[in-house]
Amino acid sequence: MRKLLISTVIAATAATGAIAQAPSDVAKARRAFYTLVGYEMATLGGMAQGKVDYDAEVASQSAKDLLTLTGYHTADLFVPGTSNEDLPGETRAKADIWSDMEGVQEKGMAFYQAVVELNDVAGNGLDALRPAVGKLGGTCKACHDDYRAADF
Amino acid sequence: MTDRLEKTYLWDPVVRVLHWALVIAFFTAFGLGKFGPDQMTLHFYAGYTVAVIVVLRVLWGFFGFYTARFANFVKGPGKVIAYARTLPSTTPSRSYGHNPVGAIFVVGVLIVLAMQVLTGMLSDPEDYINVGPLAQYVSIETARKALSYHEPLSFLLLIMVIAHIGAIFWYKTRKGENLVTPMITGYAELPPEKIPHRQ
Question: Which keywords does this Swiss-Prot/TrEMBL entry list (chain B) (predicted)?
Fold first, then answer.
């Protein structure tokens, strides 16, 4: 899994022209991927913040789905020429992603590790879930801060 | 011009405590926002503290001590321009409370602070842990808009703070007036004729 994620991000730098999809479609698919990540995160975040009752099974399933998503081959979602400079209004992905793939990779690894840790504890009660979700949400923020614009 | 100066009660304890509490709360919120942990709970608490300070100061601006009330220090453009003309001179201002130019800063910084608190509480950074408490009541588009204003506003506030400190240095070096001590002790050396309710 770890290897897969790293190779994914490295491959993204060289993915130019590998797939002949319209840039808008790339951005749309990328947002769809993160919409799925966010969907599972919303469930976990809701539980961690007490907005939704904790349910060990639901929490474990969401954590597992996140783990599944980390196995998604994202290189073709990061085709160059699909930043918010190239596609204003369609994506918030900053051009910094493509100029600093190493940094993105680091943030991605932190996210992946937090997802793994979350999977270890998601079913062990709310007190175990909360810090793991906090840590995972922190890895979302760290990447958003550097590589995603606040607004379209 | 030689003024006959008297030790004068200038800033009441509410104004002084709120001022220094704001210094601490603002820099805590700013520092945590920029450099703090990714789980921003402490930034939120610092922001709520700023919110409470702003609300109390606005209320005090209507019901507080003489020098704290907006009606006593907010002036029209004529007086603002007249006062602004005296800024370059070496003559001490000996103002009893906020001068007409300072009044613009006071009202301005309260407005920008209120905007900063509001945009922070409306922000949704979509990390599911640092979501502003009011974000759930607005659309995601509004929550993103709020997020996009929150950081630029923090820089505007930092510039306002620097201007504020710059003005204090100006008064000290150019006019020989110490504005810091009265904000700590509450007392300033002023000519009696400058105190409205003594005339």
Answer: Cell membrane, Membrane, Transmembrane, Transmembrane helix
Domains present along chain A, CATH in parentheses: 2-16+23-147 (1.20.120.10)
| Cα gap B78→B81, rounded to integer Å | 5
Which H or E element spans position B190?
Answer: strand B187-190
pTM above 0.80, yes or no: yes
What secondary structure letter does DSSP report for A122?
T
Taking all residues of chain A, what is their mean pLDDT, rounded to a whole number? 91
> Which candidate from A46, A142, A151 shows the least CB-CB separation from B144?
A151
Q: Report the candidate in B47, A16, B140, B124 with the shortest Cα–Cα distance to residue B132.
A: B124
User: Nearest residue on chain A to B152, judged by CA atoms?
Assistant: A150
Q: Among A52, A75, A73, A69, which residue's Cα sits nearest to residue A118?
A: A69
Would the annotation count A141 as a binding residue? no
ipTM, two decimals: 0.82
Structural domains of chain B, with CATH: 7-179 (1.20.950.20)
Of residues A46, A144, A152, nearest to B125 (C-beta): A144
Chain A partners within 8 Å of B131 (Cβ) = 45
The pLDDT tens digits of the residues spanning B4-62 come to: 889 999 999 999 999 999 999 999 999 999 999 999 999 999 999 999 999 999 999 99
Best of A62, A151, A152 to disrupt the B interface (most B CBs within 10 Å) is A151
